[in-house]
Design a protein that fits this description.
Layout (H helix, E strand, L loop, with lengths): L16 H8 L4 H8 L3 H6 L3 H9 L20 H19 L8 E6 L13 E4 L5 E6 L2 E6 L5 E4 L7 E11 L4 E10 L9 E10 L4 E10 L5 E6 L2 E6 L4 E6 L4 E7 L11 E5 L2 E6 L5 E6 L18 E4 L1 H4 L7 E4 L13 E8 L10 E8 L9 E12 L17 E3 L3 E13 L14 E5 L3 E5 L9 E3 L13 E4 L6 E5 L2 E6 L1
Parallel strand pairs: 13-17
Antiparallel strand pairs: 1-29, 2-3, 3-4, 4-5, 6-7, 7-8, 8-9, 10-11, 11-12, 12-13, 14-15, 15-16, 16-18, 19-20, 20-21, 21-23, 22-23, 24-25, 25-26, 27-28, 28-29
Helix pairs in contact: 4-5
Length: 505
């Protein structure tokens, strides 16, 4: 038999540049870094933009990068992309290691309105994505402050004596050039009329022109507790004590009310709700805890142009019936039936959702739910439940299939959209955050008591995974202190009387 001599294998640097860059796109971050250290030629190639775009696309939620939702990737230089990817991976590694969580910097913004330190205003602050501004509530007013200059930029119009803001939310749009602000304001009435009226108001603020503009005002049912969300064209007002969700399309100036009930007709409490990816997503106290995704398209023809809630149509949603109609919505049961008595299930602490834009336009919407049970013992220990769910389109080839919403399934579908339970955890803890705005996109949750307590919701580490002394006199369990997390960067914003602190990790 004739033996032929094998040719020597092709060396990597001898391959075409396009092929090497393509190979890099399949490598992990560590492999790309190691290849870049072998020689000058590969070091130059490993800095190619397609390599770092690919590494960015491959970052999982646990490594969520600090890229604001309004920012287009093509606006970032290759150097900025590389820096973003490296920081995201290193931050994730720190969370998983036994190292102490490091604070990179703390910024302070003084909001003084009096020289008397005992008479400073209480402040409820939220940091905008990008970290350039803080929107805060004080004395019933909404104010926009610059973190760079430390100056007041804009005050949302309100009558201090008769109108007070009780809840607010915002969204940056148009590449971050415009700020949409929504607020629920309560009219305390006059000396001759004690009737309390609530209003939902939407404003826009153009950063380039420094121009504010009122958009819409709607009369709401009088209520003390509301949760508010503005996303895209929609304003969602969730009245926690009224058992309904109010939805306002501020572009079309139309509104509708959603109520939820079980098959017997019993009204079901919706502890929290949000709007995103063409759906209303609601956590319901049913079976004993379920997640319902209702497509906005199913509300067509039901909207009212009236400015007063009394004239809006009330649509009753029966979750069990949604699965019987294609495109009608999906119901995901998060807990098995029969574990709790009716109405005695866990309390929903937070419902957070976002679209991981860095993974591409087709990436599923991520939904994080955190719920807790009441004290299990005399020491106040609570059981904390966390869930990671994805909402995505059903593949074109599978859209002809029948809806699938069996209670035991971890994936349910209405034939067009799919809800999938990706991860869940249950643990016991003595620490529970007091603010629903406490979750990062990376699936981490912060609670500020006398110390900063950090939770990792989905990986296998014990809770809490980090406890850090910030060296501040902060006790958010008191009414005078408020804390929130900017979910894209993970920065913590703490409001104390007359002062806002922004903690970057």
């Amino acid at each position: 038999m004739e033996h032929r001599q094998l040719t020597s294998p092709t060396r990597l640097p001898n391959l075409p540049v396009e092929l090497i860059v393509h190979i890099f796109s399949f490598c992990s971050f560590d492999d790309v870094r190691n290849l870049g250290r072998t020689c000058r030629y590969l070091r130059n190639l490993h800095n190619a933009r397609p390599v770092w775009i690919s590494l960015l696309r491959n970052l999982d939620i646990d490594q969520a990068p600090a890229i604001p939702p309004y920012l287009r990737l093509d606006s970032l230089s290759t150097k900025e992309l590389k820096k973003t990817v490296i920081k995201a991976i290193r931050t994730s590694d720190t969370w998983h290691s036994h190292e102490t969580l490091r604070v990179s910097r703390i910024m302070e913004l003084r909001i003084n309105n009096t020289a008397d330190p005992a008479n400073l205003d209480d402040i409820d602050p939220r940091l905008l994505p990008g970290g350039q501004h803080v929107l805060l509530k004080r004395r019933g007013r909404l104010e926009l402050w610059s973190t760079n200059s430390g100056e007041l930029v804009w005050t949302v119009p309100a009558d201090e004596e008769n109108h007070g803001c009780i809840s607010f939310d915002f969204e940056l749009v148009e590449d971050g050039k415009t700020l949409m602000v929504a607020g629920v304001f309560r009219d305390k009435g006059s000396s001759t009329n004690s009737t309390i009226i609530s209003y939902a108001r939407v404003f826009s603020y153009d950063f380039e022109r420094k121009e504010p503009r009122p958009i819409i005002e709607r009369v709401l049912p009088a209520t003390e507790l509301t949760r508010l969300m503005i996303r895209g064209d929609f304003l969602l007002v969730h009245s926690t004590h009224k058992f309904h969700v109010l939805l306002v399309n501020w572009k079309t100036q139309s509104s509708v009310i959603l109520s939820y009930s079980d098959q017997s007709g019993r009204v079901v409490n919706a502890p929290t709700a949000l709007v995103g990816d063409q759906h209303i997503v609601v956590a319901l106290d049913i079976n004993p805890l379920s997640l319902v995704a209702l497509p906005l398209s199913s509300l067509a023809g039901r909207w009212s142009q009236s400015a007063h809630h009394a004239e809006w149509e009330v649509i009753t949603i029966v979750p069990e019936a949604l699965c019987k109609q294609r495109g009608g919505g999906a119901v995901l049961q998060l807990m098995p039936s029969g574990v709790y008595a009716v109405g005695a299930g866990p309390s929903v602490l937070a419902l957070h959702a976002f679209s991981p834009s860095w993974r591409g336009a087709d990436a599923p919407m991520e939904i994080h739910i955190v719920a807790y049970e009441r004290s299990l013992d005399h020491q106040g220990t609570k059981r904390l439940h966390s869930y990671r769910v994805q909402l995505s389109r059903v593949a074109e080839a599978a859209r002809g299939n029948a809806p699938c919403c069996q209670p035991a399934d971890s994936t349910v579908s209405d034939g067009q959209w799919r809800l999938a339970l990706i991860a869940q955890r249950t643990t016991s803890t003595n620490y529970v955050p007091s603010n629903s705005h406490c979750i990062m996109n990376s699936g981490r949750m912060l609670s500020v008591l006398e110390k900063l307590v950090c939770f990792s919701l989905f990986p296998g580490a014990l809770l809490p995974v980090k406890i850090l002394n910030l060296g501040m006199n902060t006790r958010p369990e008191e009414e005078s202190t408020s804390a929130s997390v900017e979910p894209w960067s993970g920065a913590l914003t703490i409001g104390t009387p007359g002062l806002v602190r922004i903690v970057h990790f």
